[in-house]
Design brief:
By secondary structure, the protein is an alpha+beta fold. Helix content is 27%, strand content 26%. Bound molecules: zinc ion.
């Protein structure tokens, strides 16, 4: 699919993988930095699920991001395309608890 027709609601890992110049990242509240992630790892299992419905987790601190950023690589920098507000299907009560624990741990390490 052409990136011009992508929407935050429908974008899947399969769409992104077809465009090598597109990068996904999120701002981690725990690490307080932007973390880029490898869409191929998502694509291996959940290629056709809208990214918006998936639950991501920072590999460094375990905090769950709430927004994904979609950007196009342009040399050393990236051109921001749009953001995806995350609405994971598996967002249950245990999520809030895990998020609180991860945030506390991240603050202690800071
Ligand atoms: Zn983090």
């Amino acid at each position: 699919m052409d990136p011009a027709r992508w929407t935050p609601e429908r974008l899947t890992a399969r769409d992104v993988v077809a465009h090598r110049d597109v990068a996904l990242s999120f701002y981690c509240q725990g690490c307080r930095m932007t973390v880029e992630f490898d869409v191929w790892k998502v694509g291996a299992r959940l290629a056709d699920d809208p990214l918006q419905t998936l639950r991501f987790r920072c590999r460094r601190c375990g905090v769950y991001p709430s927004t994904l950023m979609v950007a196009r690589r342009n040399g050393m920098s990236g051109v921001h395309l749009f953001e995806i507000p995350l609405k994971p299907r598996s967002w249950d009560e245990s999520h809030e608890e895990k998020q609180a624990v991860a945030m506390r741990r991240a603050r202690e390490q800071a």
